[in-house]
Write a structure and sequence with these properties.
The chain is an alpha+beta fold. It has helices spanning 2-16, 28-40, 47-80, 88-116, 140-154, 158-171, 180-194, 199-216, 234-244, 258-274, 386-392; strands at 303-306, 320-329, 332-338, 344-348, 352-356, 372-374, 396-403, 406-410. 45% of the residues lie in helices and 11% in strands. A 5-stranded antiparallel β-sheet has the order 4-3-2-1-5. Strands 6-7-8 form a 3-stranded antiparallel β-sheet, with no helix packed on it. Strand 2 (320-329) and strand 3 form a beta hairpin. Helix 3 crosses helix 8 and helix 6 (158-171) runs antiparallel to helix 7.
Length: 421
C-alpha cells in the first residue's frame, strides 16, 4: 500500500511539477492565503518535492517581501501627511533633534511639496500603487509621491524616512484616529521586514505586518490593489480573522490559487505517507493557530446543522455543513462552516446543532429516525424505469428505520419537508 502511494506521488510530481514554478496570484486575497499555506507546508520526504518547496518558499518570500514593503510604505506615506497638525516650528525643532540638518532638510522639502499640490514625477514610485482610491478618500497617490519626492530632494533613503516617521508617530501630536502608537508599530514593522534576510525572518516579519493590519484595520485599505467590487476592503479583515484560528492546513486549501493547490495537495499526500505533522513554522503567530481555544463546542471536521440563519435571510437554515475553522465574533468564538454551495460562513454556536462528530462518527449520526430529507440519488435499487428513477430523485422523504448506513425511507406521502440534508 505504501509503495503504491509512493508511485502515485512520484507520478504526480513527474507529470505536474517537473517544471512547475509558483506564480504569485494577482488576487490579493489568494496571495494572502498562498503565503500562509506555503509557510505552513511541511518538508516532504520526497527529495524532488522538497526541492520544489524550498525553491517556492524562496521565490514566494522574496516576492512577498518586496510587495509588503511597497504596500506598507505607501500606507505610511498616506498617514504621514497628518503631521501638519503640529506647528512648523515644533516639527523643525523635533527633526533637528532626531536627525540634524539632514532631517530638517527632508521635512522642509516635504511640507513645501505638500503646500504646492501635484507632484508629476517621483523617483522610485511603484506603478501598481499609482491608482486613485475608488472610495475617493483622500489623494493617497499624491501623499505617496510627496514623500518620494522629498526623499530624493533631501538625499535620504526609505529606511531613513521610516525612522523619521516611526519617531514622529511616537513623539509628535496626532489628532484622534491618526498617527500615534499604532502607526509607530506599523513603521517599525516595515523596518523589521526591510532588514530581514533569511526565509524564516522574512516569514515572521510578513506575518507580523498582517497581524498589525488585523489589529488596526488601516494599512491595506489605502492600497487600491486590495479593493474588491463586491466586498470593498472588508475581505481583508474576514480573511485575516479566518486564518487566525485555522487548526488544520486542509481548511486553507480551498482558499488558495488553483495552481498552488495542486502542489500543496501533493506535499500533503507525501506528508500523510510519512506521518509528519503539519505544524506551522516557529517564531510567529502561526504557532498559535493550532492551539486549543477555550470554550470551543465544535471541532474541525464536525458536521453541523444551521438551526437559525437570520443573518442571511435564512438562506442556510436547516442545512448541514462542515466546521472548517474558527473566527472572532462580537459574542465570542465563531465557527467557519463550509456549506454545500461552496461558501464558508461564520456562525455563533447557538445557531448550530451537532450532526456528526469528527472524533467519533457514531456519536451523532447524520440522519435520525423521523428526519425529513431529500432523495438526491440518481440511481436507486428497485427502480425499474426512468420515470420511477426521476420520481425518487429530488423528492422529499422521511427516515423510518436505520440499520448502520442503510436508511429505509417513506417518500410517497410526504407533504411538508424539513432539513435539506
Amino acid at each position: 500500500m505504501v509503495n503504491k502511494l509512493q508511485r502515485q506521488i512520484d507520478n504526480l510530481f513527474e507529470s505536474k511539477f517537473g517544471t512547475w514554478e509558483y506564480i504569485p496570484s494577482e488576487d490579493k486575497e489568494e496571495l494572502l492565503y498562498d503565503f500562509y499555506v506555503i509557510a505552513m507546508l511541511p518538508i516532504p520526504q520526497d527529495e524532488d518535492l522538497a526541492y520544489v518547496l524550498k525553491d517556492t518558499k524562496e521565490k514566494m518570500f522574496a516576492y512577498m517581501k518586496e510587495h509588503m514593503l511597497d504596500a506598507t510604505f505607501f500606507a505610511v506615506c498616506c498617514e504621514f501627511q497628518h503631521i501638519d497638525e503640529n506647528d512648523d516650528e515644533v516639527i523643525y525643532k523635533f527633526y533637528k533633534k532626531i536627525g540634524g540638518q539632514t532631517a530638517v532638510n527632508f521635512i522642509q522639502q516635504y511640507l513645501r511639496i505638500r503646500q504646492k499640490g501635484r507632484v508629476h514625477k517621483a523617483v522610485g514610485a511603484r506603478q501598481w500603487l499609482l491608482k486613485d482610491n475608488p472610495r475617493g478618500e483622500g489623494d493617497y497617490v499624491h501623499r505617496y509621491k510627496s514623500v518620494l519626492a522629498a526623499i530624493t530632494r533631501s538625499g535620504i533613503d526609505k529606511p531613513t524616512f521610516m525612522e523619521y516617521a516611526r519617531r514622529s508617530f511616537h513623539d509628535l501630536y496626532w489628532a484622534a484616529g491618526y498617527g500615534g502608537n499604532a502607526w509607530r508599530d506599523i513603521a517599525a514593522g516595515w523596518q523589521q521586514l526591510f532588514y530581514a534576510t533569511d526565509n524564516d525572518s522574512i516569514m515572521v516579519a510578513i506575518d507580523h505586518i498582517y497581524d498589525l493590519e488585523h489589529n488596526n484595520d488601516t494599512i491595506f485599505d489605502k492600497v487600491v490593489a486590495y479593493y474588491k467590487e463586491d466586498s470593498h476592503y472588508r475581505w481583508i479583515q474576514r480573511a485575516l480573522t479566518h486564518k487566525r484560528y485555522i487548526k488544520d492546513l486542509h481548511a486553507l486549501i480551498p482558499m488558495i490559487s488553483s495552481d498552488l493547490a495542486r502542489f500543496a495537495n501533493a506535499v500533503i499526500a507525501d506528508n500523510a505517507r510519512i506521518g509528519t505533522p503539519t505544524n506551522p513554522p516557529k517564531g510567529s503567530s502561526l504557532q498559535s493557530y493550532q492551539e486549543n481555544l477555550p470554550g470551543k463546542k465544535y471541532q474541525i471536521g464536525d458536521k453541523v446543522e444551521v438551526t437559525n440563519d437570520d443573518d442571511h435571510d435564512d438562506r442556510y437554515s436547516e442545512q448541514v455543513g462542515t466546521v472548517s475553522g474558527f473566527t472572532e465574533l462580537k459574542s465570542g468564538i465563531g465557527y467557519m462552516v463550509s456549506m454545500r454551495d461552496g461558501n464558508t460562513i461564520p456562525f455563533k454556536k447557538s445557531k448550530l446543532r451537532l450532526i456528526q462528530s469528527a472524533k467519533n462518527a457514531k456519536l451523532s449520526p447524520e440522519f435520525r429516525v423521523g428526519d425529513h430529507i431529500y432523495i438526491t440519488l440518481k440511481h436507486e435499487a428497485g427502480a425499474q424505469t426512468q420515470a420511477e428513477i426521476q420520481k425518487l430523485y429530488a423528492n422529499a422523504a422521511q427516515v423510518e428505520t436505520m440499520d448502520g448506513d442503510i436508511l429505509r425511507v417513506n417518500y410517497k406521502n410526504m407533504i411538508k419537508i424539513g432539513a435539506n440534508r
